[in-house]
Amino acid sequence: MVTKTVDLRSDTVTKPTEAMRAAMASAEVDDDVLCFDPTAVRLESTMARITGKEAALFVPSGTMGNLISVLVHCEVRGSEVILGDNCHIHIYENGGISTIGGVHPRPVKNNEDGTMDIDRIEAAIRDPSGEIVYPTTRLICLENTHANSGGRCLSVEYTDQVGELAKKYGLKLHIDGARLFNAATALGVPVDRLVRAADSVSVCLSKGLGAPVGSVIVGSADFIKKARRLRKTLGGGMRQVGILCAAALVALQENVAKLEHDHKKARVLAEGINQIKGLMVDVASVETNIIYFDIEEGFHMTVPKLCKKLEEHGILVMPETASRIRLVMHHQISASDVQYVISCFQSAMTWVPEENGM
Ligand SMILES: Cc1ncc(COP(=O)(O)O)c(C=O)c1O
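^ low-specificity L-threonine aldolase, sequence as received from the core. Prediction below:
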């Protein structure tokens, strides 16, 4: 009989806190499509200030935040964007930049730490005076933290270097900052410094920050004016959206300071799992709240079997490949939950197939 659930599938699974629900219930609202919702305005000005940009816009999701940002920077169909071959926009956003925006992706190899080599980015930039057969490069996209690399952080120095390269060629720089606050926390730098080189950033409120819904995109006043129009085109203009923004404002107040603890809990969990026979984690690569671990080749345990055994103890995880599982730490997992999870992993991995008639 399972008595509790420890949900490590993602940081998107958190439930709104009591304070968030109270703020939602009492939020001052108005029509945000007409730009009159005072709580949305408050959230947007708060996010613009934190990120050091002129303006901000609440959007329903990170996917829409990235799509709008790419499309505003690449106004002309047939524009090209340079992005990582392992980044979220390229892999998990339904190819929206192409299917909806007519933007061509130019993937550059992502290194294990989520960076792309600067010389590879430079080599991928099209020569505007070159052959007419090439699309025109207009944008470079980074992702910080880089989810598929295990939540690794891109440094200020690296981001600045890519920003300088973009400027040199007259390109824009967009950052998918779904977990930007995790990156700033782990690096120990202010958020605005980390994204100074970027022309736009998309920040998710419903991941590490723990709000129930939404993202915010930030950039220049002109960029946000165009983004607002595009949001309406895509059906993302909402009316009394202050109800959602109120929860996000609480998330900013309550949860940013908890990210450091989430990262510590993630490291404790990674170290614990790494000590279990048959499981392997690159502990040094756990910089924020995401952990990838592998089952040793030839070990008598499979990903589906391990997921099932953990589920019997109320532990939910995300299978990634035939040998790999992802865990994501968040503020609703306690330090004692982490110890419970480690002990359940230990007992699951001591399961012997022969003794169980398999
Ligand atoms: C790095 C990254 N960017 C963007 C997104 C998209 O966010 P949403 O699921 O809110 O559309 C995600 C979602 O997991 C993500 O991990």
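DSSP finds 14 helices and 13 strands in the chain.
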